[in-house]
Design brief:
With about 150 residues, the chain is of the alpha/beta class. The chain has a single domain, classed as VSR Endonuclease (Endonuclease, Chain A), CATH 3.40.960.10. It is built from 5 helices and 5 strands. Strands 1-2-3-4-5 form a 5-stranded mixed sheet, sandwiched between helices. A hairpin with a 4-residue loop joins strand 2 and strand 3. The chain starts with 6 loop residues before the first helix and ends in a 6-residue tail after the last strand. Keywords: DNA damage, DNA repair, Endonuclease, Hydrolase, Nuclease. GO terms for molecular function: endonuclease activity; hydrolase activity. Pfam families: Vsr.
């Protein structure tokens, strides 16, 4: 399949995609801060450079884009028809890095929450449920939590 835009335009479009301080990330940080949670962001000394680190709770929050991290069975993830092998390899590497970082963090005693982009999109109009789930997890002792769209109903 041929791209619908020229190489220069595609390059410009791809360079505008941010890896940090994305809208979903800013939304979750804003909600946490409004509830009185204090945190650090993008700690380079931790595996995977977590999006949000809450040292008081020994908790880490990753906010994953459904496309970039290959969220299976998600309406927001569809493998592109062009350069399929490239995208399969790219997304697979991202998933491998996610798993590696998760194991290293768990072994170091951190608790990990992964919030998928689809869950954040679903909770934009009413973020109360997302925060209810997140604050309950932070108050508890569960080592892992994955929040996706199915939890936002």
């Amino acid at each position: 399949m041929v791209d619908v835009v020229d190489r220069e335009t595609r390059s410009r479009m791809m360079s505008n995609i941010k890896g940090r301080n994305t809208k979903p990330e800013l939304m979750v940080r804003s909600l946490l801060h409004a509830r009185g949670f204090r945190f650090r962001i993008h700690r380079k000394d931790l595996p995977g450079k977590p999006d949000i680190v809450l040292p008081k709770y020994k908790a880490i929050i990753f906010i994953h884009g459904c496309f970039w991290h290959g969220h299976q069975n998600c309406r927001l993830f569809k493998l592109p028809a062009s350069r399929t092998k490239f995208w399969e390899a790219k997304i697979s590497r991202n998933q491998e890095n996610d798993i590696k970082a998760m194991h290293l963090l768990l072994d170091s005693g951190w608790r990990i929450c992964t919030i998928w982009e689809c869950a954040i999109r679903r909770s934009r109009k009413d973020p109360a449920l997302l925060m209810e789930i997140l604050t309950a997890w932070l108050a508890g002792t569960e080592p892992l939590l994955e929040i996706d769209e199915s939890m936002m109903n």
